[in-house]
């Protein structure tokens, strides 16, 4: 359910959701409805990074998760190979 909600969070610069872009590295929900997201940005200096984190919080708290934690990592760094085949197709990439 949480992963489905995150498909509604779009990178405004690229126009694709953060799941298909491969920005979400890990997503965990425990028995107490605490949600932890480990994600990255397309670049370390991503100008919309703060916006994306806020959108993730909003998307998950709407569902009623008791606690949402978003951790940002750049290890490993994001690369286009992390994108889903659908995302690559939308961008016209092989």
Q: Any descriptors?
A:
two-stranded antiparallel ribbon; alpha+beta; 3 helices; 94 residues; 29% helix; single chain; 3-stranded mixed sheet; GMP Synthetase, Chain A, domain 3
Helix content: 25-40%
In what range is the share of β-strand residues? 15-25%
Please, what is the average pLDDT?
Answer: 95
Distance between the termini: 30 Å
Shape: globular
The number of domains is 1
In brief:
The chain is an alpha+beta fold and 94 residues long.
Please render the helix and strand layout as text:
Elements: H1 2-6, E1 10-11, E2 16-17, E3 24-29, E4 34-39, H2 49-63, E5 67-72, H3 85-91
Parallel strand pairs: 4-5
Antiparallel strand pairs: 1-2, 3-4
Protein name: Metal-sulfur cluster biosynthetic enzyme
InterPro entries: Fe-S_Maturation_MIP18, FSCA_dom_sf, MIP18-like
Domain MIP18 family-like: 3-71
Describe the structure.
With 94 residues, this protein is α+β, with helices and mostly antiparallel strands. The chain has a single domain, classed as Fe-S cluster assembly (FSCA) (GMP Synthetase, Chain A, domain 3, 2-Layer Sandwich), CATH 3.30.300.130. It is 29% helix and 23% strand. The chain has helices at residues 2-6, 49-63, 85-91; strands spanning 10-11, 16-17, 24-29, 34-39, 67-72. The strands form 2 sheets. It has a 3-stranded mixed β-sheet, covered by helices on one side. Strands 1-2 form a two-stranded antiparallel ribbon. The radius of gyration is 13 Å and the shape is globular. The N and C termini lie far apart (30 Å). The relative contact order is 0.23.
